[in-house]
Amino acid sequence: MSDQQGDPRHLETLDRDLARYSNLELATAYVSRPMIGPGIALVFIVLAGLCAAMFLGQANNSMIVIVAACFGAYMALNIGANDVANNMGPAVGANALTMGGAIAIAAIFESAGALIAGGDVVSTIAKGIIAPESMGDAATFIWAMMAALLSAALWVNLATWVGAPVSTTHSVVGGVMGAGIASAGLAAVSWSTMSAIAASWVISPVLGGVIAALFLWLIKARIIYQDDKIAAARKWVPVLVGIMAGAFAAYLALKGLKRIIRIDMPTALAIGAAVGIGVWLIMIPTIRKQSIGLENRNKSLKVLFGIPLVVSAALLSFAHGANDVANAVGPLAAIVQASASGDFTSSISIPFWVMIIGAFGISFGLFLFGPKLIRMVGSQITKLNPMRAYCVALSAAITVIVASWLGLPVSSTHIAVGGVFGVGFFREWDTERRIRRARLAMPERRQYSSEERRRRKLVRRSHFMTIIAAWVITVPAAAILSGVIFWLISMVAG
């Protein structure tokens, strides 16, 4: 036996076996890695159900609410995976933030926004899309809300898998509409509300894109194309940061702090103006000090926009958490109230434990599945630098304020992605304009063929078409899915 153990051939066989086990271990780790995210997500969904069970005890319909809590957790995970990319994508694409830093900041500020400023009283059914009286009884209402929640979550999950940033608000709207039609017919739908939402499909991205393009034009004309770029930056960067601070102050006063204090539009604008002027005055010496020793080149300008861009991304995340957490937990809160009291026609207050499911679900979804969409928004539509990304963030805040003033329901997803498109298309136009000028000034220079110029387009057309298609079919797809799910639930429950 000892001779066999000392035999070199035996040792070689043992080494080969160990190598095989080592390779098997590596292969197992490689294969299982894609399953880690879904596994953690599944654990979170189960914990959300247990949380609901703990708070409800032996209450009536507790099993229905536990299932609904699982659906709400699933929706929150999908919002984190898809929607949050719009706030962080530009900063990551511009290399102002690493992926890890973006996820950490977004998780903190999304949760803070949801728990501190979220949970405003949600109107009876997703902002007046369906007349609740048409539902007949509480059981039908509960099935409709469950169908809406599950269909919206499934649709956003599919969009994330495809790599299309879609509106979670519109997904919920489609889900509620589909379940409402399936339960009470076409007459139950408020078609005036739906037409306003349909109009926002066009208005949101166009407005976001135009505002982002205008700010990029301002930066190019007043800073980048100037002979002394640093002197121009010292003058204009404080102005731009002041505009951003004022816009966000007004945005948060108007949209993000409803739960704490109600502020009307004139007061919000006055707060924004005061904050903007204060920040502008503070930034004048700050930018002057920061710009000392910088070279007179475009690369130096990126330094001056880095910190404002990170701050704007954090504030966008706070505002998003405050506003969009209701997409995950609004229908769940409606189910909780209808199950507990049988009342489904009055306004719905969101319980704190439901808010926690929404806040933590968004953070987990971002952490586990967010990088794919962050890369898409940040770098795969068009190339971003800190100046371009700053224009996108600024346009998002201003567009929401303008839309609120006009009374238009808008999607933060459409605005942010529209801003990215606006920046990209403006760069294409500006590049073409400069090529034409150069051709007139120096006709002997090499000219690009039409094929080569098509290849040099600065916005990827394939991503553009995928995203637009996903936006157009979000409401009808979620509505059809919700109607089918409602029918299946009714069959099982009946």
What's the rounded overall pLDDT mean?
81
Contiguous low-pLDDT stretches (5 residues minimum) are 121-126
Q: What's the shape?
A: elongated
- Please bin the fraction of helical residues: over 70%
> Total strand count, please?
0
Total helix count? 16
What proportion of the residues form beta strands (DSSP E)?
Answer: under 5%
* SSE-based structural type: mainly alpha
Q: Note the gap between the termini.
A: 72 Å
Q: List the quaternary state of the chains.
A: single chain
Measured on Cα atoms, how large is the radius of gyration?
A: 26 Å
Please trace the helix and strand order, writing H or E for each element. Answer: HHHHHHHHHHHHHHHH
Description:
The protein is mainly alpha-helical. Helix 8 packs antiparallel against helix 9. The radius of gyration is 26 Å and the shape is elongated. About 1% of the residues have low confidence.
